[in-house]
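User: Reviewer 2 asked us to show a designed sequence for the structure in our supplementary figure. I'm pasting the structure tokens here. Could you produce the per-position amino acids so we can include them in the response letter?
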């Protein structure tokens, strides 16, 4: 049957006539004509806890919708705050605040989230329900200060009698619902709701500006917080299956995550759960901070259940998924991480350009999608009781990695091979040597590229459905390769490619190379070279002469194998030797010593012996039996013992300027292990002395 109609039908005459003289403290239903249509005005009094009321908690079941039991556990439990209707509405708004509608409460308590009860604000206080100076950090007048005198008091509001301006804008449920406000014709704690039997009364404003429907006020509160109300209505209930708001309708609201205001004859509560086995509903009764039960359509504390007030907010939309990195051209393949700021949301995505739906593949929050071709990636997120997110879309264009040239551009000897590679699997590299930008029709770098002339080498990598790589460019200066002797015969400032030299002595920033046939050698200056004795290598550099000795200032050098050079024994007099194809104008060849008597050996690894004479920490003299001397130069970390008498020394024959265009003999020594001290003249010295006396 129609419970609301039944409550009023039996006393319709009273509703029309006697209601106007009833005590304002008892609450009643009265009929009101509007536009030729009869409506019922449900007048809800303050309804504070009854005298002698003792709070008692009732057990709540564990939600299990499959077994016909469901509870909205986030509905806060508020005790009575200046009227039962705004208190019930405040619990509804507090629930929405706790489940994501974060603007419903923005005060300082509980980190800006509506707490589970109002104990933090004190007995019968809640800023969501009725703002009050001194509560929740408020330092100006609010609802209670402007409108409240005492429960059921019908005198003009305090702001009227006190002569101050009422607070503005409205900021609590009681403000928007017209509760306690003289301007809306309400005594303290009273709220009214418009019904039309079992029909829905949507967002009623027909009584304004005389009366404010409480459910319309709830809508205004939600909208003031920035939320969209899909619909709000009052409806009489039925214990049957039609003719009003049914128990099945109530379950549907709870299952959708929407608490419902339960309207009694004289009281408003909030319903937040059900047990379908016996049509039990779970309610917050506004009198304490616990949960309670009643039978759908029954009575509670002597008051009959006659209707409901429903507020449906537009679902919160799941936040749009985030792509990291952002779309665009990036080195491929591209690992795109997809996240959603909304906890618990399920992310669906497509890589075809189609809009994703909930039937498309799911990716866990924080997981990645590997993009291995040009792709339009789209994602949306869904969550129960929330609107699907907007679609995030982006085109990802993996780009082939730019080729690498090994060795890089520089000066090299003719026939130098350059290896061109890319780290992108499956890419094809095309190159040019004429300075043009490579295209897919240019030669493919299937193996090393041999350079025989100076050129600008450009390479670009291509792959189907990928962005072509950046161009890699190398400038190569190519010189004719020659042996050590040919290189040494070139003039100063000539850049030469010297091949197949063997390292005979390695110092920190210098090394010496010789040809395998021991015809000639040359000094190479190359800081930080890292080559060891016995390395066979090619070196490219510029010829110069320092102190009469030819040198090669290396531009680059690379090992080609290994070899060995044994020192040649020579008397001091034989070191240096005569000039070797020397051209004093160009510096070509090698200058000889004035007193030389044999072939030029500057640049060759030699060994000599004689009497020892120290000069300083870096130099000493070796004098042979004929009285000829050579100045030996050692590295800075080599210790020279001034007490040595005779020595045998291995080093590279060299020279230094002696002034006036002349040069003097020098032996470049690698270190202490290249010096052998003797207490007496070694045999080589004695033989040298014998030969000198015989001559």
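Assistant: Here is a per-position design you can include in the supplement:
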């Amino acid at each position: 049957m129609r419970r609301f109609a039944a409550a009023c039908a039996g006393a319709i005459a009273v509703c029309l006539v006697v209601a106007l003289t009833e005590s304002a403290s008892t609450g009643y239903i009265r009929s009101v004509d509007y536009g030729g249509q009869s409506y019922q005005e449900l007048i809800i009094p303050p309804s504070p806890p009854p005298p002698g009321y003792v709070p008692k908690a009732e057990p709540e079941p564990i939600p299990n919708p499959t077994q016909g039991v469901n509870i909205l556990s986030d509905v806060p439990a508020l005790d009575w705050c200046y009227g039962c209707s705004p208190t019930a509405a405040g619990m509804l708004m507090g629930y929405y605040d706790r489940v994501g509608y974060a603007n419903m409460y923005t005060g300082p308590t509980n980190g800006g989230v509506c707490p589970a009860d109002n104990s933090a604000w004190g007995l019968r206080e809640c800023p969501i329900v009725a703002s009050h100076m001194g509560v929740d950090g408020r330092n100006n007048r609010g609802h209670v200060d402007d409108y409240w005198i005492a429960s059921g008091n019908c005198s003009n509001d305090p702001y009227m009698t006190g002569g101050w301006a009422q607070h503005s804008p409205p900021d609590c449920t009681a403000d928007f619902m017209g509760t306690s406000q003289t301007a809306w014709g309400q005594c303290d704690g009273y709220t009214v709701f418009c019904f039309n039997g079992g029909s829905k009364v949507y967002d009623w404003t027909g009584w304004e500006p005389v009366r404010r429907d409480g459910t319309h006020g709830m809508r205004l509160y939600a909208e003031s917080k920035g939320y969209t109300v899909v619909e709000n209505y009052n409806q009489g209930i039925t214990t049957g299956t039609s003719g009003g708001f049914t128990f099945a309708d109530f379950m549907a609201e709870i299952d959708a995550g929407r608490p419902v205001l339960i309207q009694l004859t004289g009281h408003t509560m909030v319903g937040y759960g059900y047990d379908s086995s016996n049509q039990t509903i779970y309610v917050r009764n506004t009198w304490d901070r616990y949960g309670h039960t009643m039978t759908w359509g029954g009575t509670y504390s002597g008051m009959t259940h006659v209707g409901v007030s429903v507020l449906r907010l537009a679902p919160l939309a799941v936040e749009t998924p985030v792509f990291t990195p952002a779309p665009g051209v990036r080195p491929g393949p591209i690992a795109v991480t997809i996240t959603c700021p909304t906890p618990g949301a399920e992310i669906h995505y497509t890589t075809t350009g189609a809009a994703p739906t909930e039937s498309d593949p799911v990716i866990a929050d924080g997981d990645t999608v590997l993009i291995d071709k040009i792709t339009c990636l789209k994602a949306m997120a869904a969550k129960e009781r929330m609107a699907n997110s907007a679609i995030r879309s982006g085109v990802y264009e993996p780009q082939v990695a730019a080729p690498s040239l090994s060795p890089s551009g520089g000066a090299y000897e003719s026939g130098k091979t350059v290896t061109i590679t890319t780290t992108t699997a499956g890419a094809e590299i095309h190159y040019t040597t004429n300075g043009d930008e490579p295209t897919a029709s240019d030669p493919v770098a299937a193996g090393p590229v041999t350079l025989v002339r100076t050129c600008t080498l450009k390479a670009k990598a291509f792959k189907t459905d990928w962005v072509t790589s950046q161009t890699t460019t190398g400038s190569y200066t190519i010189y004719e390769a020659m042996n050590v002797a040919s290189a040494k015969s070139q003039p100063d400032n000539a850049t030469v490619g010297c091949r197949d030299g063997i390292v005979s002595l390695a110092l920190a920033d210098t090394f010496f190379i010789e040809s395998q046939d021991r015809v000639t050698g040359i000094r190479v200056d190359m800081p930080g070279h890292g080559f060891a004795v016995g390395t066979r290598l090619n070196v490219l550099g510029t010829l110069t002469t320092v102190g009469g000795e030819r040198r090669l200032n290396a531009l680059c050098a690379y090992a080609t194998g290994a070899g060995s050079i044994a020192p040649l024994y020579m008397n001091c007099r034989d070191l240096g030797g005569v000039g070797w194809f020397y051209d004093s104008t160009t510096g070509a060849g090698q200058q000889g010593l004035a007193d030389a008597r044999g072939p030029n050996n500057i640049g060759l690894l030699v060994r000599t012996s004689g009497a020892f004479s120290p000069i300083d920490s870096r130099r000493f003299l070796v004098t042979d039996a004929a009285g000829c001397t050579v100045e030996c130069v050692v590295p800075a970390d080599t210790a020279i013992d001034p007490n040595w008498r005779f020595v045998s020394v291995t080093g590279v024959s060299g020279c230094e300027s002696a002034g006036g265009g002349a040069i003097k003999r020098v032996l470049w020594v690698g270190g202490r292990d290249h010096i052998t001290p003797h207490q007496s003249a070694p045999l080589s010295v004695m033989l040298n002395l014998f030969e000198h006396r015989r001559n």
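For the response letter, you might also mention the following. The two ends are 148 Å apart (CA to CA). Confidence is low (pLDDT under 50) at residues 1-27, 689-695.
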